[in-house]
Amino acid sequence: MAFGLKRADLQRWKTSVKQGNISFLTHYWQDSRFPEYYSVTKVGCSDMEKLITWGEKYQLQENWIHLDKNFPHFDLLGAKQREILIAENQLEQLEKFSLM
Question: Hey, how many other C-beta atoms are within 10 angstroms of the C-beta on 1?
Fold first, then answer.
């Protein structure tokens, strides 16, 4: 279940993903399978080769890509989420969701 997500932020992410950009969207999140995590970052791109290559840079496996609703994306959680957001200079998301 997602929280703290504005419709405009989601629309910007979807538009950017459709345009073939590597795009980041972080939001509060609750899932009983992962009770230790309270946020998730979705990293999407409609250009699958670009997304796969980007993921390889961070040791993310191709079979971890979610293919739902024409918005292919990786879900980042925990230490890997923080590591990648720092490496990608996504400081606003790090600060907004207290991931530092």
Answer: 7
Is the distance from CB of 47 to CB of 23 less than 8 angstroms?
no
Q: How many CA atoms lie within 13 A of 39 on its CB side?
A: 22
Q: What is the DSSP letter of 66?
A: B
Rg (CA), the chain: 13
How many residues comprise the chain? 100
Q: Which residues pair with 92 in a beta bridge?
A: none
Give yes or no for residue 59 having a pLDDT over 80: yes
Q: Say what the pTM is.
A: 0.88
Confidence (pLDDT) at 52: 98
d(CA 89, CA 22): 13
